[in-house]
């Protein structure tokens, strides 16, 4: 199997990954993913598509992550892994799609409007 490339995005985070056959290592920015994502919750988010298809130990994944916060990066990585698994085997698509792993979450931060302190917040109204 050759190397499969894939991209995932969430908020301002972008994950570019290379998937190859291996022993289940996930390297994020030249560090182990458990070191890069210290909380169990974020590690679980990354493992979700691999656990669903039961292919945890089949692939080595090298990740280049940048932008956004730690949660956005984890969800971008989940999308990239899901897309790569579909490229490897198109029969995986229905299972991943029903769990929502192939849907790119379009929600981003709303821009700040002029004359306001934040996007929707207003300054305190004074009658006099």
Can you tell me the number of structural domains?
A: 1
Strand content: 15-25%
The number of helices is 4
Report the span from N to C terminus.
73 Å
How would you portray this structure in words?
By secondary structure, this protein is of the alpha+beta class. It has one domain (4-98): Ribosomal Protein S5, domain 2. The chain has four helices and five strands, in the order ββββααβαα. It has helices at residues 33-36, 40-53, 70-88, 93-98, and strands at 4-10, 13-21, 26-28, 31-32, 59-66. It has a five-stranded mixed beta sheet with strand order 1-2-5-3-4. A hairpin with a 2-residue loop joins strand 3 (26-28) and strand 4 (31-32). Helix 2 (40-53) runs parallel beside helix 3 (70-88). The protein starts with a strand and ends in a 30-residue tail after the last helix.
């Amino acid at each position: 199997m050759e190397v499969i490339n894939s991209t995932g995005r969430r908020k301002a985070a972008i994950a570019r990954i290379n998937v190859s056959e291996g022993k289940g290592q996930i390297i994020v920015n030249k560090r182990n993913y458990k070191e890069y994502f210290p909380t169990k919750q974020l590690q679980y988010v990354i493992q979700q598509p691999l656990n669903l298809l039961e292919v945890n130990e089949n692939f080595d994944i090298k990740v280049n992550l940048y932008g956004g916060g730690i949660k956005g990066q984890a969800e971008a990585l989940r999308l990239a892994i899901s897309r790569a698994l579909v490229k490897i085997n198109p029969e995986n698509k229905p299972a991943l799609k029903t769990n929502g792993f192939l849907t790119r979450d379009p929600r981003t931060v709303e821009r700040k409007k002029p004359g306001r302190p934040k996007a929707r917040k207003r300054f305190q109204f004074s009658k006099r």
